[in-house]
């Protein structure tokens, strides 16, 4: 496949992660870039935004829920913009709002996600 986004598949499967029991884990499988795994490829290298959704999912609090999170002191990275949307969808969220800080200006910004969106979008 030609890009990391098109090659990503999402599954909720513990066996793929070697986890014997417990709740399913939202896992992203990415292509490797120059032999390195991309962010959010496993639970171990997931960014905090994905971890927050996973923890809420594990606690049974995501199905049909409206979720809000804050990224402290920085913006959401490019990988996470698509991965947050995929994780929110897989977790069954109704909506998601992410508060962040623009890396260039230091000003606050707000992203949103609704079912059917492939990426979080900045609110105007």
Could you outline the blueprint of secondary structure elements for this entry?
Blueprint: H1 4-7, E1 9-12, E2 26-29, E3 32-33, E4 36-37, H2 48-58, E5 66-70, H3 78-90, E6 95-101, E7 108-113, E8 121-122
Parallel strand pairs: 5-6
Antiparallel strand pairs: 1-2, 3-4, 6-7, 7-8
What is the beta-strand fraction? 25-35%
The portion of residues assigned to helices is: 10-25%
Shape: globular
Q: What structural class is derived from the secondary structure elements?
A: alpha+beta
Unreliable residue runs: 1-21, 28-32
Strand order of the largest sheet: 5-6-7-8
Please report the distance between the alpha carbons of the first and last residues: 33 Å
Tally of helical segments: 3
What string, H for helix and E for strand, traces the elements in order?
Answer: HEEEEHEHEEE
């Amino acid at each position: 496949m030609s890009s990391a986004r098109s090659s990503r598949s999402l599954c909720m499967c513990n066996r793929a992660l070697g986890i014997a029991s417990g709740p399913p884990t939202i896992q992203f499988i990415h292509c490797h870039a120059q032999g390195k795994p991309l962010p959010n490829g496993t639970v171990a290298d997931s960014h905090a935004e994905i971890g927050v959704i996973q923890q809420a999912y594990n606690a049974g609090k995501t199905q049909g829920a409206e979720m809000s999170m804050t990224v402290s002191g920085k913006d959401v990275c490019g990988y996470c913009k698509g991965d947050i949307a995929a994780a929110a969808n897989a977790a069954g969220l109704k909506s998601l709002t992410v508060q962040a800080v623009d890396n260039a200006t230091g000003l606050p910004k707000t992203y949103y996600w609704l079912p059917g969106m492939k990426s979080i979008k900045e609110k105007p």
